[in-house]
Structure formats: structure tokens, C-alpha cells
């Protein structure tokens, strides 16, 4: 099929939106919005305001489920409000993910260093069976060796602590606590998978997971989550590629118990939505001995999603329950409540911002 769409200036795109039924009460604000965000990116937020196609016009092969026309009452101001909410939500999630990343680096480094200061550099201190598994045309350990050595070489260009070690101890491997500081967040799950089971279990339990298998899967989810937030990708109405599928007794306590229910939310693809990712992050931060107040910050931001517009069938068009995988009455779940300590204080390592 030949691509036939032609370039349009922003004022022409605004006229097109009006023709299709999207109200533009403030043309200057709309122009500024499209200049800042872009027409294509704004389409991800405009999509939910478009009318659903009749059943006989839906093309599942091309994923065409909505017409170009907008539902009655839809306005560019609704779109702008939704984008602003989503942008702030990503910043809130990114802060929680950064906190988790720092804690994870420290946990892996401390656990491996207790076995050997250069445990990352020898199969003697890692899981031999995991190390010997194939990774392309080499083993996972060989691939890992290339990864951490490249990270060290790159780190030596910017970090004095790496330069110092290489100059003072040229014949010795850089210690694990330095390596974990220069590894990318995306490479930490790779190292975790190579750890011996007792060591991996020790790290997993620091974050509330009973078994390293489930924790390792969640680490990869957090990498995807972090990348989406860091690169400005949409969180609202997003289905991530990895699904969280917890089993009973894989985590400590009952904070994630509601996720075991098959119908915990009305959103399609519930195990791939931002709620289940955020719930896993909140659980891990709360389970860590340092505590957190991030779950309260997240809760405050989600409460700000307040777009009063009904779908043609009379239901609420946009809400956390409809589009983001949130359970009904989610705010009353224990995982989103303050953590009580003596004197009714919170286990909060940072202030809870409103």
C-alpha cells in the first residue's frame, strides 16, 4: 500500500482537527501545544477521544478500531491536560526507578563482594551452569566479560575512581563495587542472572522477593519501565511488552496479593499496564530496609487524572481503571497507604511531595 499522507503546516493540522470534531477553544494554545509536543506524539493522547468504528468497519489486521472523528464534547484542552498528566507521571516514576536502581547496585555489589572483591570476573564465584549457557556464538560468561570490561573502559574516560584503580593496581581486576557503578541499568539483570543461587536469593529478599527467578523477571520489567520514562514515552494507555505474572508465595507479605486475582482490573492486558509495573516498584522500595515514601508521591499524581468526559455509552471515558490497569478502589489497598512506624511516622527516605 502506497503512503499518501502529505505534509501539513501546524495551522492546517489544527483546522483538520476542528473539521473532525475536536474543539479548539484557544488556537494560540493549540498551536503552542503542537509546536512543543508534535502532531504525531499528540495523536497518542488524542486517540482515546476518537469515536469507535462500527463492528463491521474494524480492521484488526491493520489495528484500525477508531474513526478519524472525535466524540461529542472532546476538546484539544482535554488532550493537553492528559499529556501534561502523563508527562508528570513519568517524572514521578523515573524518580522511584532511580532510587531503586541505586539500591540494586548497592545490593549486588555488597553481596558479591562478600564472596570475592572481583567475583564478577571469575566463574568460580558465579553460577557455572548459567555462565556456560550459550549467548549467540559464545557463552553467557564470555558475553558478560566483554560487557563489564567495556563498561570499565568507558568509565575510565569519565570517572576518577576507575582511573585511580587502573593506575594503582594495573594487574588486578576492578572491584565489583566499582564495576556496578559503571554498568548500565540494563546490564544489571544480566549480572544478576549469573549470580549463584544463594547470592541471588539474598539480593531478591532485600526487595521482598522470596525466589530470584521472579525477581530477575521483574528486573527486566523495571529496565523497560525506566527506558519508557527516561525517553519520554507514553505511560497512559500503554501496554508494555513484558507481563508480570506473579505466583502465590513468590513475594513476602500480602501487599501484592491483589495482583493474583484474574480480574483485579477492567483494563485489557492488565499484566502489562503501568499499574502493575508501579505496584512492583512500590513493593520493592517498601520492602527494602531503607523504606520509602515514593508510593505516596505516585498516589498523589495519579489522583490528578481528572478529565470529566463521558464516552458515547455514558461511561467514564478516561480513568486509571479504564486505561492504566488500576483496580477499583486501588487507593484503599495497603500498598498505597503510609507505612506506620512508632509514633505514626512514615518510613520515608525522602519527603513526600504534593
Keywords summarizing the entry:
single chain; 354 residues; mainly alpha; 2 domains; two-stranded antiparallel ribbon; two-stranded antiparallel sheet; 14 helices; 3% strand; disordered C terminus
Which helices and strands, and how do they pair?
Elements: H1 10-19, H2 27-37, H3 39-46, E1 50-52, E2 66-70, H4 76-115, H5 128-131, E3 134-135, E4 138-139, H6 140-156, H7 160-168, H8 176-182, H9 188-194, H10 197-206, H11 212-230, H12 274-287, H13 294-302, H14 320-323
Antiparallel strand pairs: 1-2, 3-4
Helix pairs in contact: 4-8, 4-10, 4-11, 4-12, 4-13, 9-11, 11-12
Quick summary of this structure?
Mean pLDDT is 91; it is low at 341-354. Helices cover 48% and strands 3% of the residues.
| Domain tally | 2
Averaged pLDDT, please? 91
Enumerate how many helices there are, as a single number: 14
Q: Largest beta sheet, briefly?
A: 2 strands, antiparallel
The helix content is 40-55%
- Shape designation: globular
Description:
The chain is mainly α. It folds into two domains: 65 residues, no CATH class; 198 residues, no CATH class. It is 48% helix and 3% strand. It is built from 14 helices and four strands. Strands 1-2 form a two-stranded antiparallel sheet. The protein has a two-stranded antiparallel ribbon with strand order 3-4. Strand 3 and strand 4 form a beta hairpin. Helix 11 crosses helix 12. The longest helix is centred in the N-terminal third of the chain and has 40 residues. The radius of gyration is 24 Å and the shape is globular. The N and C termini lie far apart (50 Å). The C terminus is likely disordered.
Amino acid at each position: 500500500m502506497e503512503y499518501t499522507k502529505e505534509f501539513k503546516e501546524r495551522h492546517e493540522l489544527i483546522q483538520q482537527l476542528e473539521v473532525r470534531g475536536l474543539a479548539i477553544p484557544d488556537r494560540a494554545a493549540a498551536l503552542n501545544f503542537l509546536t512543543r509536543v508534535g502532531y504525531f506524539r499528540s495523536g497518542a493522547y488524542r486517540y482515546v477521544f476518537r469515536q469507535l468504528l462500527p463492528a463491521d468497519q474494524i480492521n484488526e489486521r491493520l489495528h484500525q478500531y477508531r474513526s478519524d472523528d472525535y466524540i461529542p464534547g472532546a476538546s484539544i484542552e482535554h488532550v493537553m491536560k492528559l499529556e501534561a498528566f502523563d508527562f508528570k507521571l513519568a517524572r514521578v516514576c523515573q524518580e522511584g526507578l532511580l532510587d531503586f536502581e541505586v539500591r540494586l547496585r548497592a545490593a549486588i555489589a555488597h553481596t558479591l563482594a562478600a564472596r570475592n572483591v572481583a567475583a564478577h570476573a571469575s566463574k568460580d564465584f558465579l553460577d557455572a551452569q548459567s555462565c556456560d549457557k550459550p549467548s549467540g556464538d559464545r557463552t553467557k560468561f564470555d558475553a558478560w566479560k566483554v560487557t563489564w570490561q567495556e563498561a570499565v573502559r568507558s568509565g575510565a574516560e569519565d570517572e576518577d575512581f576507575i582511573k585511580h584503580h587502573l593506575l594503582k593496581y594495573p594487574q588486578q581486576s576492578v572491584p565489583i563495587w566499582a564495576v556496578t557503578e559503571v554498568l548500565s541499568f540494563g546490564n544489571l539483570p544480566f549480572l544478576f542472572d549469573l549470580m549463584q543461587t544463594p547470592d541471588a536469593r539474598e539480593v531478591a529478599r532485600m526487595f521482598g522477593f522470596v525466589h530470584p527467578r521472579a525477581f530477575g523477571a521483574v528486573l527486566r520489567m523495571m529496565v523497560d519501565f525506566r527506558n519508557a520514562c527516561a525517553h519520554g514515552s507514553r505511560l497512559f494507555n500503554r501496554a508494555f511488552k513484558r507481563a508480570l505474572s506473579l505466583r502465590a508465595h513468590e513475594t513476602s507479605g500480602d501487599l501484592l496479593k491483589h495482583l493474583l486475582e484474574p480480574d483485579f482490573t477492567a483494563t485489557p492486558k492488565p499484566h502489562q499496564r503501568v499499574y502493575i509495573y508501579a505496584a512492583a516498584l512500590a513493593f520493592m522500595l517498601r520492602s527494602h530496609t531503607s523504606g520509602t515514601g515514593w508510593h505516596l508521591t505516585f498516589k498523589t499524581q495519579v489522583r490528578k487524572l481528572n478529565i470529566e468526559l463521558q464516552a458515547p455509552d455514558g461511561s467514564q471515558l478516561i480513568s486509571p481503571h479504564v486505561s492504566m490497569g488500576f483496580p477499583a478502589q486501588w487507593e484503599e489497598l495497603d500498598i498505597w497507604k503510609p507505612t506506620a512506624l512508632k509514633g505514626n511516622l512514615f518510613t520515608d527516605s525522602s519527603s513526600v511531595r504534593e
